[in-house]
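JOB MANIFEST
job_type = single_chain_structure
chain_count = 1
residues = 292
[input]
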Amino acid sequence: MELKWLDDYLALIETGSFSAAAEKRHVSQPAFSRRIQQLEEWLGVTLIDRSRKPLRFTPLATQHEVAFRSLVTHIYEFQATLRADAAHTPDMVLAAQHSLAACCLPSFIEELRAILPEQRFRIRSQNRDDGVALMLRGQADILMTYESRQTSSTIPTQLASSCTLREDALVLVASAKLCDSDDFMRPDRPLPLLCFPPESFFGQAVRTHALAELMHTRLVAVQYVSEFSLGLREMALIHQGAAWLPRTLIAHDLQQGTLRELRRSDEALQRLMAQFVANRNGDATTSHTGQA
């Protein structure tokens, strides 16, 4: 099978005429017809109903028209990828904790692009433990993750260097609609909570520094559990409960008033650190302290 046969067939679909398609493909009509027949022979199916005029495609051909277009597109995309891989430097793999990948990674890549304009990047959005594992296995060049003052990275310093990007805080928030509800704010009613799993990094931070304090003053009822900050944010936005979320992730929501902060978290909880862990040889990719 030759790729030009598929291009011929797409030209026939677009023009609806053998003569017009042959002209578009810059070949004679007899040669064009032979190539369409060769494609049919290679596929082992009939694509053109030659018993009728004007030109009609068989039901099978019509049914799979989108697949033909997709196949040609994928072939050319694959060709372009191979050529790019041969001509450019290898991808730099950036692993990032899910919430950081959503809110901080784009600006960091923009800074890297200014330093390395020809570099290509491959993004791996992971939970924290999986991101650390990628770094330890040498499958990530840069890891972007949260650290707290009470916990240290499990990545040996001889494998990677680290630098602090900025400080972030987990804040307890709920939708404006819930905050305006009398039942939601009544201290004798359970506060619906959207929580991280207790074994997750954020889950451990909340339970260590904030949840016990909250439960001293308010009954709570866990409504939803997820390790994904973005998922908890979406649930909070549709009024399902209150959630501790990174301030950086919900900065726009707080500014717009769609989410409101219920109370200030414990001081220790507000000092969670977003850190970059650089590549394995310990060379920091950048020493810039950004505001991502």
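[summary]
The two ends are 50 Å apart (CA to CA).
The chain has three domains: 3-86, 92-168+273-277, 170-264.
exit_status = 0
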